[in-house]
TrEMBL record:
It comes from Secundilactobacillus kimchicus JCM 15530. It is a multi-pass membrane protein. This is Polysaccharide biosynthesis protein. It holds the Pfam family Polysacc_synt. It comes from the Bacteria.
Length: 554
């Protein structure tokens, strides 16, 4: 197998598919997690500077971002993942020239969809505000990002088609860094220096998405020129036996891309259902105060969601990595390898997602105070803990849907998701009516559980996925994760009590040592157990031996 070196050359390397997946996942996971963490940490100073308007501002931010996310996914139209899959497909046939032609035609599509969706978002803002006119300037500021992000995402897909995850991961981090920097600078100036409107501050915070996109795109351009010689060599040495007409290239891109719109927007679609139904259902229950409703919406749809998406991004990173690898195996007709890679993807997802979700639930109380302060602290902690458990089914859907796309079962995956959406809609009113703020989360869990069950059942039927092996290792992951959860929960209480003798623990400053110590000890316990029992070896391969040596674990 040929891969590009850091210097831009090519290296022949008998790297296994599992090791390749783990390596690619490591890059994507690192970039995604660092970006998510950075995208969550900013909320601490941002919230302090907003003061009494924090929850209202965060609710407005979330309303705008949910709508923007949907338009962005439509603008991207799944083209980056489709490009990654198609480039990997033709690269496996040593037809690198076709891959370049696909990228060029995809660029035209990305530019056009960006212009169309940005225009719809900007001029259609008054129709999308959901009765809250303050959302309009926020949507106007976000429309600019929709112009450029499709092109940036397309370029990431091109690199991923070569199974080069570093450019995507690093550009993602640079994008987030520039975005957060702009957000914090403008929020401080508007709220603390000029003492201006919090609505204006939120609008500038959302415009930061455009600033970040420019930085991310420039990073990718730099990577391309750095490796230009290698790309030219691969293209020059292609078989050049396949001539694909432009019309067929567009058809291939669109056939692969359109299902990605629905599947890629899956979580966002569920969030939009919450945004456009939660307020009316709660008013029917008797909660009529807009301030209270905005606070509740901020707690479950924005605050908790921002933190759980750190763990869900783990699964997203794995899903992105799995698509080109599965496509390559499927193209070669190696169904046994397809089955093996499906197993590897699911196990790798569980290995990182389950302990991450349970760990976040264990530290929900101090973690929520650290990021969002003490407003509604008990309710907010309960919502975050429940959301953490629910994030497992959200993350699983990103993996299972990506697996279906990788084996060209896009329509079936969309159909299963639509069934899950119907389940969500059916349960939405009774869940919100009787469970209040927890209702949307429960309805979401039901919807994704059904969609995941349908996909996993079909995969087993078609490929004979070794679920007995998965179940055996899953039991080990669950046992160690639950053990870590129990220990971490006890540690949080002990540290809170001990530190409470010297300082105010229910404060941002007091929560820092509680979170840091609990995460460090709980995380080390899980790592120690999976390394000691060799469970990590069966999931990650031989790479764990170096870590075991470093930690002096025999």
């Amino acid at each position: 197998m040929t891969r590009m070196s850091k210097s831009g050359g090519t290296i022949s390397d008998p790297i296994s598919a599992q090791d390749q997946m783990v390596k690619g996942s490591a890059w994507m996971t690192a970039g995604s997690i660092l970006s998510r963490i950075l995208g969550a940490i900013y909320i601490i100073p941002w919230g302090i500077w907003f003061g009494q308007f924090f929850l209202q501002g965060n609710a407005l931010y979330g309303k705008g971002y949910n709508i923007y996310s949907f338009f962005l996914i439509v603008a991207i139209a799944g083209i980056p993942s489709a490009i990654a899959k198609q480039v990997a497909h033709y690269n496996a046939m040593n037809e690198y020239g076709v891959g370049f032609r696909i990228y060029k035609h995809g660029f035209v599509l990305a530019f056009l969809t960006g212009v169309i969706c940005a225009s719809l978002l900007y001029f259609g803002a008054p129709l999308l505000d959901g009765g809250d006119a303050r959302v309009i300037p926020v949507l106007h500021s976000l429309a600019w990002a929709v112009l450029i992000i499709p092109t940036m995402s397309l370029t990431r897909g091109f690199f991923q088609g070569y199974q080069q995850m570093a450019p995507s991961a690093i550009s993602q981090f640079v994008e987030q860094l520039a975005r957060v920097a702009y957000m914090l600078i403008t929020a401080f100036i508007i709220m603390r220096v000029l003492h201006g409107s919090w609505i204006t501050a939120v609008s500038q915070s959302t415009f930061a998405a455009f600033i970040g996109a420019v930085a991310g795109l420039l990073t990718l351009v730099w990577y391309y020129y750095r490796n230009r010689a290698t790309f030219n060599t691969l293209r020059a040495n292609s078989n050049n036996q396949i001539v694909v007409p432009a019309k067929q290239l567009y058809q291939e891109i669109l056939q692969q891309a359109l299902p990605f719109v629905v599947l890629g927007a899956g979580i966002t679609i569920f969030q939009l259902i919450d945004q456009y139904t939660f307020f009316d259902i709660m008013r029917g229950v008797g909660v009529t105060s807009q301030v209270i409703l905005n606070d509740m919406f901020a707690l479950f749809s924005v605050n908790a969601n921002k933190l759980i998406m750190i763990t869900v991004s783990l699964a997203s990173a794995l899903a992105i990595t799995a698509v080109p690898l599965l496509s390559e195996a499927f193209t070669k007709g190696d169904l046994r390898d397809v089955s093996k890679q499906i197993t590897n993807a699911i196990l790798l997802f569980e290995f990182v997602m389950i302990p991450s979700a349970l760990g976040m639930a264990a530290i929900a109380h101090p973690l929520n105070i650290l990021f969002y302060g003490t407003a509604h602290k008990e309710l907010a902690a309960a919502v975050l803990a429940f959301s953490s458990f629910m994030s497992i089914v959200l993350g699983l859907f990103t993996v299972t849907s990506a697996i279906m796309q990788g084996i060209s079962q896009n329509k079936r995956a969309v159909r299963y998701f639509l069934i899950g959406t119907v389940v969500k809609l059916v349960f939405q009113w009774p869940c919100v009516h009787y469970l209040g703020i927890f209702g949307p989360l429960v309805a979401t869990a039901f919807g994704f559980i059904v969609a995941n069950a349908l996909i996993l059942g079909w995969l087993n039927q078609e490929f004979g996925v070794n679920y007995s092996e998965i179940a055996k290792k899953t039991n080990g992951i669950l046992v160690f994760s639950i053990g870590m959860f129990i220990v971490t929960t006890i540690l949080v209480k002990l540290f809170s009590w001990g530190l409470g003798l010297f300082m105010v623990v229910d404060s941002r400053g007091g929560s820092v040592p509680v979170v840091a110590l609990s995460v460090a000890i709980g995380g080390f316990l899980y790592v120690y157990l999976v390394l000691k029992t060799r469970l990590a070896d069966t999931v990650l391969g031989s790479r764990t031996s170096r870590l075991r040596t470093m930690l002096h674990i025999r």
